[in-house]
């Protein structure tokens, strides 16, 4: 069984499982779950898909058929899920090591060597620093290209939030990617009225798996049943927000150890299949030796009434 790392500060508590894909197992405020809690079955199985949140390195979302061309080189990636495309990079499927830690913070990381791991052809080092305080949780995502060649890159977080009958999500967004049957982007359009996060969207009757563009960096989640709200704030590089709310059948199929209903609001740097698309896809090119660093923050608060 993987060992847990417990962080505490003020009213917050965070349980990390570095060996399970750098996953967050539980994140609470005043004892209330802000992310879906990871089940014992998921922990025992070492399954980060059952986590409260896992990292997206060295890209987010999907790459069509695991293939793309970068700087004159054809790249072929091995499939890492049951679907037809490569999903979420590989950081969520790799063990991370604790670099340093104290009562309220921890830095974890891993080094990818393509000579030993064929999932990605570029050498790089990734780190995440988790810091708890009375202001909430800050997660700093860092990647350094250790290859002699430039490397395409993207990252983000994949949090799973509790989905209650009255939960809602509000965020400033400007665009939306329509998708095909394989959840791959087909056309960039305005935000559909039925999914307008700008006005606030109830999570109960929504089924969606799409990228919203022009994310303004702040998303607000409300759980009126518990009189709790959560502010998610991301640095400007995370200009895309993926909203994933599965239907009941899909959620049941994806459940790991009976996980409760959830929805995902993922701040990410790149759109789905960014490495294959032209235009403003969010793809980052890291030169040899260059380091990327950006943060995502979570802060809970009491909801006011009236």
Number of helices: 2
In one word, what is the shape?
A: globular
Main sheet: strand order: 10-11-12-13-26-22-21-16-19
What is the rounded Rg? 18 Å
The percent range for helix content is under 10%
| Residue share in β-strands | over 45%
The CATH topology annotation reads as: Beta-galactosidase, Chain A, domain 5
Main β-sheet description: 9 strands, antiparallel
Number of domains: 1
Which blocks of ≥5 consecutive residues have pLDDT under 50? none
InterPro entries: Aldose_1/G6P_1-epimerase, Gal_mutarotase_sf_dom, GH-type_carb-bd
Pfam families: Aldose_epim
Protein name: Aldose 1-epimerase
Task: Furnish the topology, listing elements before pairings.
Elements: E1 5-9, E2 12-17, E3 23-29, E4 32-33, H1 40-45, E5 53-56, E6 62-63, E7 67-70, E8 73-76, E9 86-87, E10 97-101, E11 105-112, E12 124-133, E13 136-145, E14 151-153, E15 156-162, E16 168-171, E17 175-179, E18 185-189, E19 201-202, E20 208-213, E21 218-223, E22 228-234, E23 240-245, H2 248-254, E24 262-268, E25 284-286, E26 291-302
Antiparallel strand pairs: 1-2, 2-3, 3-4, 5-15, 6-9, 7-8, 10-11, 11-12, 12-13, 13-26, 14-25, 15-24, 16-19, 16-21, 17-18, 17-20, 20-23, 21-22, 22-26, 23-24
How would you sum up this structure, described in words?
With 306 residues, the chain is mainly beta. The protein has helices spanning 40-45, 248-254; strands at 5-9, 12-17, 23-29, 32-33, 53-56, 62-63, 67-70, 73-76, 86-87, 97-101, 105-112, 124-133, 136-145, 151-153, 156-162, 168-171, 175-179, 185-189, 201-202, 208-213, 218-223, 228-234, 240-245, 262-268, 284-286, 291-302. Strand 21 (218-223) and strand 22 form a beta hairpin. The chain has two helices and 26 strands. It has a nine-stranded antiparallel β-sheet with strand order 10-11-12-13-26-22-21-16-19, with no helix packed on it. Strands 5-15-24-23-20-17-18 form a seven-stranded antiparallel β-sheet, with no helix packed on it. A four-stranded antiparallel β-sheet has the order 1-2-3-4, with no helix packed on it. It has a single domain (5-302), classed as Beta-galactosidase, Chain A, domain 5 (Distorted Sandwich). This is Aldose 1-epimerase. Pfam families: Aldose_epim. It comes from Dongia rigui.
